[in-house]
Specification:
The protein is of the alpha/beta class and 401 residues long. The chain has two domains: 209 residues, P-loop containing nucleotide triphosphate hydrolases (Rossmann fold, 3-Layer(aba) Sandwich); 143 residues, Hypothetical Protein Yjia, Chain: A,domain 2 (2-Layer Sandwich), CATH 3.30.1220. 32% of the residues lie in helices and 21% in strands. It is built from 16 helices and 13 strands. The strands form two sheets. It has a seven-stranded parallel β-sheet, sandwiched between helices. A six-stranded antiparallel β-sheet has the order 8-9-13-10-11-12, sandwiched between helices. Strand 11 and strand 12 form a beta hairpin.
Length: 401
């Protein structure tokens, strides 16, 4: 009898696996004895049996549709494949291995209630975990030491997956200082996530969770998002060396001074994300997305204050109404910073120095247009790489891949 035809059958439990250490995670999982029948949906092709893999571990491997890159990511077909696997009733828990170009959130979106694929999978399969597996040395080399991301993988891509998942698995390491610092960095990036060391108990931890993955909470709970939304007045400290804080101001940045700070003055910052206001660009929101050595700025939507009164009255979200302050409405600075070995007060002072002086403010907005502005030209619909913004929605957000 298939899992979907049994009247009292539960939906097939699903985990999404992403990150550079997924091979090590799968090797540990398949070496762990369990009575749970496991399945793996992967784009990696046929999988060879790993050394030390338990003979008692049942791992049914199926290739992810489509198998070739030219077909691209096809949510409807993948949902159909998941449903077919569930209907066979041969496994108890399905793991989906993300490819290097498809983020965990893309697969997680298949299970969002109300969506086309979510409706098709309702009652058939339920997402219980979204997992990012990474070695502490990889995380620190790329984010902290700025030695470059893994080949063909954007560091911003890895970082945004770290911020999205609800489980982070750190591959075993003999360097305890690396492990401790990596854990501190991971929990700063994603305070909501369960951080595990890769061990014999990893599979047990993953299978123990039976609650449905909350897609909306995953988007809202990234460390940078919480820093901006929760209006914390004091920096968060994960370890003595790691701090995180939100910078806020109601005065615009002088574009040249802010440009110079972004280019030369952010040593010690491993993550920065949020939105900003340039004095020379009164209509457009600036979006900043920095991860390690990668930094991107782009137009991130339009300030509500730049729109007509009718639109503001009928469409402006309540949270933006609460942020409104005359004479410039919702225009403001709101950027989350995460740092290592850097006094937050020093960075705040540098940011304050980028704001217009009292004399520049008094000169008026018309005079600001003559200020030197080295930022590339922006347009409302032209976004740079992964720094995007849905300012017209209920969120001030630099969007994910």
């Amino acid at each position: 009898m298939s899992s979907s035809s049994a009247g009292d059958a539960r939906p097939l439990s699903v985990s999404i696996l992403a990150g550079p250490s997924v091979p090590a995670l799968l090797q540990q999982i398949t070496a762990t004895k369990t009575k749970v029948r496991l399945g793996l949906l992967t784009s990696a092709g046929s999988r060879a049996k790993q050394p030390g893999e338990s003979e008692t571990t049942q791992l049914i491997v199926e290739e992810l549709w489509p198998s070739s890159a030219e077909h691209g990511y096809d949510p409807a077909r993948i949902a159909e494949q998941i449903r077919a696997i569930a209907d066979k009733g041969l496994i108890d828990h399905l793991m989906i291995e993300c490819g290097v170009e498809t983020p965990a959130m893309a697969f997680a979106s298949l299970f969002v209630p109300g969506g086309e694929t979510g409706h098709a999978l309702a009652g058939v399969a339920a997402l219980t975990n979204s997992v990012l597996a990474i070695a502490p040395s990889t995380l620190l080399n790329e984010l902290i030491h700025r030695r470059g991301a893994a080949e063909n993988v954007s560091l911003g891509f890895i970082t945004e997956q770290l911020e999205f998942v609800d489980v982070i698995v750190l591959e075993s390491t003999q360097n305890h200082s690396d492990s401790g610092l990596a854990r501190a960095v991971a929990t700063t990036l994603n305070p909501r996530a369960l951080v595990l060391d890769l061990s014999e108990s990893t599979l047990k931890e993953l299978l123990a969770n039976t609650a449905s993955f909350d897609f909306a909470a995953a988007l809202d709970s990234a460390g940078w998002r919480r820093l901006i939304d929760e209006s914390l007045t004091e920096p968060m400290t994960r370890l003595e060396k790691v701090s995180a804080f939100a910078y806020r101001a109601r005065t615009p940045f002088h574009p040249e001074r802010f440009w110079n700070l972004l280019r030369d003055g952010l040593s010690g910052v491993f993550r920065a994300k949020g939105f900003f206001w340039l004095a020379t660009r009164m209509d457009l929101v600036g979006g900043l997305n920095l991860a390690g050595a990668e930094s991107h700025c782009a137009a991130a939507g339009q300030w509500w204050a730049a729109r007509d009164e009718y639109t503001r009255q009928h469409e402006m979200p309540e949270r933006t109404q609460k942020e409104w302050k005359e004479p410039f409405g919702d225009r403001r600075q709101a950027i989350a910073f995460m740092t290592l070995d850097l006094d937050p007060d020093i960075l705040k002072a540098k940011l304050d120095a980028c704001l217009l002086t009292d004399a520049e403010v008094t000169a008026g907005a018309d005079s600001w247009q003559a200020l030197t502005d080295p930022f590339p030209s922006w347009s409302h619909h032209s976004h740079d790489h992964e720094c995007d913004h849905d300012h017209e929605s209920d969120e001030h957000d630099c969007c994910h891949h």
